[in-house]
Amino acid sequence: MKNTIFYKIALVLTSFTGHAQVTLNADGPGGVGTYELITNALAPGTANGAIEAPDAIHPDFGRHIQEAFDTELNKNVFEFYSHVSNIPPDNEPVAGKTDRQRVEIKSYAPSPDNLKGIIGETVQYKWRFKVPAGFKPTTSFTHIHQVKAVDGDDDDPLFTLTLRKLSNGTTRLELIYDKDAAAATIKYQTPNMSLFEGIWVEATETIKVGLQGTYSIVIKKVSDGTVLMDYNNPNIQTIRPAYTSSTGVVYAANSFIRPKWGIYRSLADIANMRDEAMRFSDFSIEEISSLSAKEYSKENVAIIQFPNPVADKLQLSETILNQYNGLRIYDNSGKQIFTTDTIAENINVSSLKPGLYIVKFKKGNTLSKGIKMMKK
After folding, report:
1. Which of 301, 278, 277, 299 is nearest to 289 (CA)?
2. Are 65 and 102 in contact (CB under 8 A)?
3. What DSSP letter does each residue of 15-82 carry, written as one string?
4. What pLDDT score does 183 carry?
5. How large is the average pLDDT for residues 140-147?
6. Which helix (H) or strand (E) holds 243?
C-alpha cells in the first residue's frame, strides 16, 4: 500500500526534447505527507531541506504548510500559514532573526541538477497562487516568489514578486529586479493588488540564464485567461559574475539560480498585520533548453555527450579527445579545483566530493562553455 501511494503522488519527472520537468501538486488525505511530498519533488534525499518554516518556534500549530481542498480548482492545493498573533510571532527560522518571518519552499544546492539554472540554459517556472481577500501586506516587503542566485553575491534575490502597502494605504504587487549589490533596485511593474485578491491566477516565468540573458513573466486569471501582468526583457543580466563592489567586497561568480515560493514578510509593520493563509498549486520547473540556438553548435553537442552522473572516472568521447587538449573543473563557488592540460578517454575524478560541478574543455588558450557534471 505504501508503494502504491508513493507512485500516485503528484510528482512527475518527464522528458521533453531532452529536458527534464518536475511538477508538484498536493495529493490530499491518504497521500504522502505534505513536507515529504514537497521534498520528494524539490530536494529528494534531504531531511525536508526544501522547506523553510517556523514549526520549531510555533510547535503547537504544527506544520505551517498543509493541504486543503479548493472548490474553485476542484482539487487539493497547498496552503501556507504565517502567524503574528502568537507570542512570539512566527519569526524567521534561520540565523536567529526576529524582524521577519518566512514559510517558503525552494530548490537549492542539494536539489537535482535539472532544478538549477546555469549560464546558457533557459528555465521556466510555472505556478498558481491565490492572494486571500483582505490580505494585509507590510509596508516593507511581503515576498511571495523569489529567484535567488547561489554563491558569490547571493544576498538579494535577482527577481521578486512582493506585495506591498504604500503610505497612502493602497496595496500593489511589485515585480522587482536587483542586478547586484551595487545597483539600485528596479520596480518593473506595480499593478494594484486588488486585481489578484480572492482569485486563482497562473504565473509563467521564463529566464535565459546569462550576463546578457532574457526574462519574461505573464500572470493571468485561471478562470478566463485575462492577463494581469505581462513583462518581457530581451537583454538583462540574470546571473551575477565575479566582481568587486564599490566598498571593496570581492564576490565570486554565482554558480546557479533557483526559485522560491511562499510568504516571506517583514515584521516592522506588525501592528497592522494579521495571520495569513495563502494557497499555491501546480508548481513546475522545466529546462526549456540547455543552450541557445546560436550556442548549440556541433562542438557543444559533442561536449555534452559524456555519461552523467559521474562516479570515479569522467569518460570522454572520441570527438572530445580529437577537439580538445585539456579541461578545467569548478565547484559551486566558481573555484577551479581540477586542471589538466592533457586528456585521455577516462579522467580520474575520485577525489571530488559528491555534488554539482562545472566542466570546461580547453583548446589552446580558449575554454568551452561550462557543462554541468554531477559527481556521485
Report:
1. 301
2. no
3. EETTEEEEEEE---TTSS-HHHHHHHHHSTTSSSTTEE--TTTSTTT--SEEEEEETTTTEEEEEEEE
4. 92
5. 97
6. strand 243-244
pLDDT tens by residue, 18-66? 457 899 999 998 888 999 999 999 999 999 899 999 999 999 999 999 9
* Phi, psi angles (nearest 5°) of residue 371: -120, 130
Question: Minimal CA–CA distance to 64: which of 100, 10, 104?
Answer: 104
Q: Is 77 exposed, middle or buried (0-12, 13-18, 19+ CB in 10 A)?
A: buried
Question: What structural domains does the chain harbor?
Answer: 2-289 (2.60.120.200), 298-375 (2.60.40.3080)
**Paired strand residues for 315:** 346
Residue from 255, 376, 356 nearest 309 by CA: 376
CA distance 219 to 221: 7
- From 115, 57, 66, select the one nearest 89 (Cα to Cα): 57
pTM of the model: 0.76
